[in-house]
Design goal:
The protein contains 13 helices and 4 strands. By secondary structure, the protein is of the alpha+beta class. It folds into 2 domains: about 80 residues, 3-Layer(aba) Sandwich (Glutaredoxin), CATH 3.40.30; about 180 residues, Up-down Bundle (Glutathione S-transferase Yfyf (Class Pi), Chain A, domain 2). The chain has a 4-stranded mixed β-sheet, covered by helices on one side. About 35% of the residues are buried. The protein is globular.
Length: about 270
Amino acid sequence: MLKVYSYFNSICTQKVFITLAEKGIDYTTQNVDLFRNEQFSPAYLKINPKGVVPALDHDGRVVIESTLICEYLDDSFPAPRLVPQDPFLRARMRLWSKAVDEQLFEATRELSFSAMFRERMRNMTEEQRQGRYQNVGDPIKRARLISTYEEGVDSPYVFQGIGAFEMAFQKMEKDLQIGGPWLLGTELSLADINMMPFVARMAYLDLLDIWIAERPGCRAWWERVQARPSFVASVPEKVPAADFTAMKNSGGALRARVAERLAEYRRLPKAAA
């Protein structure tokens, strides 16, 4: 039996849901409410000491880290194969996983926070805000949270995030032009699945076209993703309509400033970028 500890609008959990759907694997879920800090409860920290979602329980064996969970599922349930057999393609797939884990996760968190969750924190008391800061055990993550809360889109971390998406879409366009229709060629892989929720979040924040309006390969890839049953079942069908409305409204309010900051990034000298 598979159990996924999840939160419905967690981009990392969505990667796991899509992988499970592609493979047709049955599973149960246990919700971990991130806004009630349930991820920091003693019971959950025994499951995932990092205090994040998702976590996968497979017959009592727990796997954490969404990228590792997706590869674990591919090894444990090998049909259909989502990790290429060819070593070179497998290495390219893991470069996309690395980009998501090391750059786009933080980029999406900062952009999402500046658009939506910043307002939620503004409605907290100072004591509640300080408690939220203290719950972030990593001092680097805490500094990013404080900066994004205080400065919004003008935070240097948000600027870095805007640049991270620019670099990702540049590479995506190049890879899709080489082969396609998927990132590694003709077959869907974890490279695509890892990217799907992050691109979707920018779309739901009404920001995606700022990056891909003039990138036909990226636009066509996104259209294919939206028609994929595994994506539909794992992302739009799991997120409440009210959340979609909130994302669109809050992200839309930042569109002009995000576009300005992207233009700033694109003017940077190539070596500096």
